[in-house]
């Protein structure tokens, strides 16, 4: 060190003047020295270090992590300017593209990383047109299959140091010094330039795990790389394909989707997903799907209260799984387009029925769509142009995709309710966020998840729990529906719990012909039924 300035006394108990002539290692906490060594090596290649979390060695031990940045000046004999700032590295992002991070590593989380990768893929058209630099690069996905076992061998401080070291190293190797992510507990990703040595990257991360492992054995590191570019798909379809691959990588368990397998088929997976995106877009644009209806029944009278609209896709091989298609649409960012197309389809169906009909239909809305400005504007345009729909349509907010901005979601819901369209919170009881939703958002109906209802029938305290939940909803002025009621035993159970409406195979499977349900004969289930 040839010069030091700043409040070093407050940080480590030594005056700045006494640091001149010290080796940098003497200033760095022992557990972070290998990280700083790697970062300095990277700075020799890239010229900079940005926002790594590093601890100093103080008189009373290691300090809290500081934000460590710096530059290498080749014109000054290869000297470095290094800066330590109080506070962990700041979050990066803008009001238009907010960034969320993994709390432990400081890396992007899976959602933010997906957005970054997609934006780089979409930038291809501009670069090819000469309107900007080509910054797409490559995407590498990394897995540590034995990471959980390694954590079990380390104490909390060692775990923190390891994840911090890996995070800083991945960031330093990524484009812009911050395009790296923790996709799940043991899976990571980064976008990088073409000249990254993947074998060296794996070796370095493996070395970090050996240094952190009390046994010294470390763990295996797997990685696979794909171009953020394609000659066979549009930039938009490629972006959706890459996001799909990231989501598959995040959600796969065990060996079902290992990086070893991924290394041989990642490019084909992205290509297949891009082709599937293109095909799904055509299905949506051409409305190549049908609406099937299933009745929601009053548990006391047996009368049909309304219908739920469910999608049915057709293919050359027969009917495709609606669930798989919807999940695919959510994972590739197409669900907003589909949800809007489904709303249009239901409006067309209702328009064919008599205007004086009392038949009403509930349309599903994904949690993703609630946050989409394109979906919101398109839906309200549809409703404004068809004022007769009031009293004929409801909306079910599904929790297949978790909502994060609950204030914005509630604003969307209240606008619908204010325009005369009741809103139902679907899948209630299936996720940990349900009660947060119910306390934050005002809705008209709560639909109890079918698996939760079945579990309540089997659990010793299930009935008491469900009755309490129904009572809570009643106190809030919210009606309740129980789904997946397929036999009389289930109907009797939800009646005893005070649920107001019921849906399930006991009253018929979803059908494209609503007249099927007009022939329901239910006197054995509803003694007071009048038909």
Task: Describe what this molecule looks like in 3D.
The protein has 531 residues and is of the alpha/beta class. The chain has three domains: 8-85, 2-Layer Sandwich (Beta-Lactamase), CATH 3.30.450.20; 110-279, Alpha-Beta Plaits (2-Layer Sandwich), CATH 3.30.70; 287-518, Alpha-Beta Barrel (TIM Barrel). 42% of the residues lie in helices and 19% in strands. The protein contains 20 helices and 18 strands. The protein has helices spanning 8-12, 24-27, 33-46, 110-122, 124-128, 147-153, 156-173, 198-212, 235-251, 259-285, 322-331, 335-352, 367-370, 373-384, 406-418, 434-440, 450-458, 462-475, 488-496, 515-518; strands at residues 48-54, 57-58, 61-62, 66-73, 79-85, 138-143, 180-184, 187-192, 222-227, 289-298, 304-315, 318-320, 361-366, 393-398, 423-428, 445-448, 479-482, 501-502. The protein has an eight-stranded mixed barrel, surrounded by six helices. Strands 7-8-6-9 form a four-stranded antiparallel sheet, with helices on both faces. Helix 4 packs antiparallel against helix 9 and helix 7 (156-173) runs antiparallel to helix 8. It is elongated.
